[in-house]
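Task card 7
Instruction: Convert sequence to structure tokens.
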Amino acid sequence: MRIRLLWLLGPVAVSATSAHTEVLEPDSSYIESIAFEEVLPEEPGAWALRLSAALERPAGEEDTFVVPKLQAFFGITERLGAEIEAPLVMRFGPDDDVGLGDVGAGAKFVIVKQSGRVPAVVGLLEVHAPSGDADRMLGAGSTEIEGAIGIVLALPSVVLQGTFGYATTVSGSEARLVDNVSVAVRLTRRFYGLAEVLVETELPSGELRVATGPGVKYAVTSEMFVAACIVLGVADETSHRAIVQVQHGF
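Output:
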């Protein structure tokens, strides 16, 4: 279960710097999403470490999950970046348990750079391996591949972005559409507010899971930020969850 743990581990963070200037307009800055995967890769030669934690009680379940996750992001070229992640899943309920979740790796490639009001377009690919024990509810039990197209329009004080993707298990037994949209606004020099919408559509049933994610981010330094988000389910069988993050760039 990737909450499925996709909902629980999906996150993601807000940049503490005005990086990505090679992809965006020079007078704009990138404010990344929190509740879903950020769109842009790191700059060439740059890398960042992010520690996050999510708290969730899935709809209809007796168990509560706390999932700390460590992620590393790398900029390879001007257009290409990669990342790896390793979650620790802690389950609290009738039978407490803890163990490694489904580890993942991904890549992002900038197809089109932003030009004026024409947004940047990015291709994203992510793979999660079944390293978490599905029988103990620590993982999904199968390899999952997700491909998406990301769009970013960064203005001096506002960033609009979204990802529109398709996820499936290698066996083809499960598939879904994964669509996310984020609006981020610079409130002060260091403080940002975000509003996000996350939608998953199970295939072929068409069952929807919809959630909204108001969040905030504070840039401690030019290389470090802290962020928090509350994801509120607004459709049946959609869980609520809380996310906190801290990231440092190098």
